[in-house]
Give the backbone structure.
Amino acid sequence: MEAFVHPPRQTADDGESGLRRAAGLATMVQRVAVAANEAASLEEAAAAALAAVSDFTGWPVGRLHLVDGAGALRPTSVWHPAVSVESAVDSTVDSAVDAAHPGADIDLAPVLTFPVLVGTEEVGALEFFGAGQLDDAAELDAVLGILGAQLGRVVERERAAVASRRNEELNREIIATAHDSFISLDASGRVTEWNRQAETQFGWTREDVLGEVLADLIIPPEDREAHTRGIQRYLEAGHATNDGHAPNCIGSVLGQRVELEAVDRSGRRFPIEMTAWAVHDGDHVVFHAFIQDITLRKAVERDLEHRSMHDPLTGLANRGLLIDRLSAALEQTGATGTPLALLFVDLDRFKNVNDSLGHDAGDRVLVAVADRVAGALREDDTLARLSGDEFVVLRPATATPEEAVELANRILAQLEEPFLVRDTEAYVSASIGIALASDATVSAEKLLADADLAMYRAKERGKGVLELFDVALRIRLTDRIETERELRRGIEDGELVAYYQPLIDLGSRRVVGVEALVRWQHPRRGLLLPDSFIPMAEETGLVNRVGDWMLREACRQMKQWQAELADPPSWVAVNLSVRQVERPGLVDTVTGLLAEYGLEPGQLLLEITESAIMRDAQAGIERLWRLRELGVRISIDDFGTGYSSLNRLRRLPVDSLKVDRSFVADMFVSTGGTALVEAVITMSHSFGLRVVAEGVETVEQLRELFRLGCDEVQGYLLSRPIPPERLGALCGPVLAAEVDQQLNGERPRQPAPS
Ligand code: C2E
Ligand code: CA
Ligand code: CA
């Protein structure tokens, strides 16, 4: 709204009154300025301004109008002169005049109105009433803009105050409901603010802590002094400092997000994240901090870190963590000279567990193995799982190599008892390679590789054994390739030899069959046992050539015995490797040989290891069925070392079951050993299978096996494997009489199946 000045009243003008008027004008502006500065509200300032303008102009009445929410200008009860509160609402120009000039009768009309402005925004107006026109309106006109703007400043100030009040309320609300603790401190370190979350987090109520020294409440005792010193140093320096020694003090953490430790009322310590800052207000400093309990986050972080360093299945250290620890242990060894030992533990034929029982069961066995191995360890040992069935033990300080060997033996002992998986007892043995280091010249990776090599050598020597790494080992491994070439040549040159070990039927006491066992008559190394070349041949596939040779040789020999001996064995047993069973030509090969040597199918027995037959090779099993239907005998070898589901066993094309010699060896050694053999015999008989015990070395074992109803026995007690020409001497009444005498009136408790 433009200032509207009614036509001025004509008055005489002289120099003196001009000066007086200029002074009056200045006084008026001054009064309004002071009122605008000091008034608490626009109403208060407007009342002063109305009075000042009235005094200057002589207009008797003025009134404040304010712009309402809809933008319309509305009269207020702020009058000059002031009217009583009671009459303010319905007051009129007349009542205002009456208040100022009681009894006077003055006829008034609006003479001037000017706006109250905040910037260009009109927020109100002052209206004046007078009896006549002002004669020097031009002067007044010049200052009306100033007056309006000065009153506008009051509105601005009011608005700012409201806004800041709202802000403050909002801040309070935010602080009160924050998920973080909010704490304020004064310069002496005393608490001035403590929100609800702080109450929950630290267990102290606001009332408890206001005015208390924060350090005594939530800072761990050992950090308190540093905290107090930190505040002190901050106040002296006037800015954040970092003395590097005391991370847990406010002086060094201001303006940063830091992780610290805090304690609550109960004394519980927990990790926190704190963001602290200082606010300066004149000479005062206030410290504020948001604090978050990061126990959970820390736990998740630890979990993630743990995952990255551990094997998820067993929870053991993984390769990365092992290498870390090994490197650290090697450094330690370099410093102290105390040797360390690394044991590479590889489970024997573990693939069979997975193949026959499934991966879930395999996983469970691995977890159980980890548990048992851990049971043999010391606190400071590290047990890691590298992959599949490979475990590694690091013993950081090992007094002697013997101690490492003893540890390996303890681990092997831990694995002796079977693992019970899905009602099946799974036997797990391991081969262990040991590498020792007594200085830091070897790298972690290299030492691990050494232990791995030693483990391979242990495997070569047979399962369930341990081996110390030595330099000669690496040379031996390169020898392997040489050995393979040698074996090929040896087969060509006819260096394979067949030995035979008799099997005695405990009912008739007769040599009912013989098992063909291969030997290698090496030109330089002498007569080699199968364990020194069969595993290698299995790996390279050469075992097929060995097997082919043995099948033919056994058939040929059988034919020869039938021609030569009065009481030849009823059948000859030949060991088949998995690879042979998996070959499609097996049935043709066997039928071809039987025909070639004129043998009855029942005069050949094929021994297949339990783990081989339990592999899910359906084709292989069908092949065995076809052979069995032809009349060829089939026996499960090394029974008890694989992981047969017994129920599945009865659906396999099998005539007999050969209990592994470790069971026989165990009979009088471990408690329950005899009961176990008895259970196998009972179960096999219920399936209609004959039971053979191998590895019978003592009379005691022989008698017990007989008593338990075992059908056939084989072992050093009766005869070692022998060259074929010596069999004749055993196949007569001599061996039978010997067995008779050894059994010495023993009677079987169970009859054999007919
Ligand atoms: P196997 O099939 O379990 O053969 C029985 C092994 O036990 C033979 O070892 C035999 O000498 C040994 N043995 C017999 N009685 C006793 C005893 O009372 N005490 C002890 N401690 N041992 C006894 P060998 O001849 O060294 O054969 C070892 C393994 O080599 C055989 O175990 C078999 O798995 C494998 N093998 C032997 N010949 C052949 C073959 O022609 N083909 C295949 N694929 N593997 C064969
Ligand atoms: Ca065998
Ligand atoms: Ca066997």
Observations:
- The longest strand covers residues 269-281.
